Structures are given as C-alpha cells and as structure tokens.
Amino acid sequence: MSNVFFNRFEAGSGPGRQQNLFISPSKHLYLTKAGYLRWQKKAIDPRLLGAKTLLIRLAVFDVDTGSVYGEYHTQEGAKDLIGFLARAWSAKADHPMKGVPRVLNLPAAVLKDDGYRRDLSFAVSHTDLHLGKLPSGFSAGVNALKQLEDRVASLPYRGASDGIGLDIMHATAGVTSDEASWALGQYLWNEGWKEVQPPTEYFLNAVDALYVEPGAWRSGAFKLVLNGIPNRH
C-alpha cells in the first residue's frame, strides 16, 4: 500500500466536506432462491441463510447536508467499492449528491479487506480525498441507514410485480436514496449541493479503465441512476 494512502489517512481529520462510509449486511432484506427481494421482521442470521442470498448495504452519509446515497449488492458485487463510490460522487438525475468529499470516514473493518484497501488507495491517488475514522452514534448517519432500508423494502409493494430483483434495486438506487434523505427532514438539502462540482473526467476515465468492459460501473441498470428513470417526473 502506497505512502500516499497512509499519509492521507492521517490527515483525514481536517476541515472540509466529510462523508461517512458504511458497509454492512442487511439484517432484514434478502434475495430468494429465484432472485426476488424480500423483507423479514426477524433479524437475519447469516449462519442460517438456507436458500436466501445475503444482501450487503453500501452507503455514504454526507455530514454537512444530512443526505444519504446507498446501494444493495450480493457479497460478490459489494466488493466493487470504487464503482459504488464513483456513482455516489457522480452527478445523478434523481439525487443531488455529487463531488468527491475532502474526507471519507471509514469503519475499521474496511481497512482489513485487501480489495477495499486497493479501491480506497486508487481513490486517494486520483483525487484530493483524505481518509478518516468513522465516528460512533446516530450522528454518524445510523438513522439514515434505517430510512434507506425502509425505502428499499417498499419496492415490491409499489404496485409492481412480485419479481423485484437486483436490477430494479440498482436502477432505483438514486430514487430510494433521495426518498430516504427527504424522510430525514432534509427539505432544503438540495441547496447544499448547488456549488459542489462533480468528479473530474480524469478520475472518471481512470475508473472506466479498471473494468474489463470499460465503464461497466456506469452501465446497465446503473445508467438509470446517473441519467434518470424515464417518465419518473
């Protein structure tokens, strides 16, 4: 791991816009054997999944605006941290969050994963990002995660068919995150993003080049996150 990575981590407590990163298994949402989204009241025991597929929640909570952007992935998909961060920081049609923060606060467990460390090192090397330690308590954005979970859980009950899968969950990530942020009472939160610039083309092009299919992080269902869901408004 480069010295730049560790130097930026040590400098992560200074002034500037901060975001908190969360990576954790959902306690109530899972995919059935057929790949459909379900919610259960009792907390999921990851040791007793049976035919259920565990879902991992990736989310960033913006400390200054109180807004949240999050996605749900299988365990394999959740390893693509740089793709998630690139989407969180890109300009999105249905969600105002954009721009690389000065500080990204991390849970300690993230740095124990070689893949996550590699992606964070890449982000640090291609931006002005600094890394910090995730604070504890509700101020860190725990309530935002609850609101996000509620919005995603409601997807199968919005008049759609029974078959809500990962593709729809991914395509609507901007919308569900936007709704979660509004539920937190951030009625004027859009104002906080007007002067924020999206990531540089240098960073986005560098992320594109990481994939066997260049730009895969913003293709498929995720194209709707960035470009907007047709006829939504």
What's the arrangement of secondary structure elements?
Blueprint: H1 3-10, E1 18-31, E2 37-39, E3 53-62, E4 68-73, H2 81-89, E5 103-106, H3 114-126, E6 130-133, H4 142-153, H5 166-171, H6 173-183, H7 201-208, H8 222-227
Parallel strand pairs: 1-5, 5-6
Antiparallel strand pairs: 1-2, 1-3, 3-4
Helix pairs in contact: 4-6
Q: Helix fraction?
A: 25-40%
Shape: globular
Note poorly predicted spans. Answer: none
How many alpha or pi helices? 8
Q: How far is the first residue's CA from the last residue's CA?
A: 45 Å
Mean pLDDT: 88
How would you spell out the order of helices and strands? Answer: HEEEEHEHEHHHHH
Please state the CA-atom Rg, rounded to the nearest Å. 17 Å
Task: Characterize the main sheet.
Answer: 6 strands, mixed
Assembly state of the chains shown = single chain
Structural class: alpha/beta
Number of DSSP strands?
6
Estimate what percentage of residues fall within beta strands: 15-25%
Describe the structure.
By secondary structure, this protein is α/β, with parallel strands linked by helices. It has eight helices and six strands; from the N terminus they run αββββαβαβααααα. Strands 1, 2, 3, 4, 5 and 6 form a six-stranded mixed sheet that branches. Helix 4 crosses helix 6.
